[in-house]
Amino acid sequence: MKLKNKINATLLLGTIASASLLSVPANADVQSMIVAGGCFWCVESDFEKVNGVLDVVSGYTGGHTESPSYRQVAAKKTGHFEAVKITFEDSVVSLETLSNYFWKTIDPTDPHGQFCDKGSPYKTAMFYQNTQQKSLFEASLAHINKTKPFADEIVTQLLPASTFYLAEDYHQDYYTKNPLRYRFYRSSCGRDSRIKTLWGEIASKSHHN
User: What are the Peptide methionine sulphoxide reductase MsrA domain coordinates in residue numbering (predicted)?
Assistant: First the structure.
């Protein structure tokens, strides 16, 4: 299992550390979280830097076509979101912390997509897998609505989780496999500049590492 850099999500900054799934104690409380935040390359990169996150995979969810391909999803005819599934150790980082971190990595005010990517696959959402997650996501949304430093309405949806289909291998860890192309895409798409305009900070200072 490959080593992955992490960033302390509680502080949204922190010491870079390394971890692997193989090092997780057998009695660890391992959970998962599914979110959509536009381009899954970027969401995967942001969350893989969080301390306590064990793995992040890119995929498709929320649509009506079985086992969709990237080409089908990108054609905007399957109803799927580009999404990620985050596996994390609850004793190190909580679902509440990850939920609050999520908001600071997206533009939750855009009903049409994210940054330079527009259309249904790029809309934002949080997919609850049980009633506990639903309640926590609702509380996180209520909190961010009260504390957001901008006036625009938050349009990110809270939706019940459905089948999560893994994206093709070349999409997984794209930011590490193709760092130059990834950095150019992220910069030219205006993701970090828009996040800074909205939130006054970049949630993860190591987006480009």
Answer: 33-183
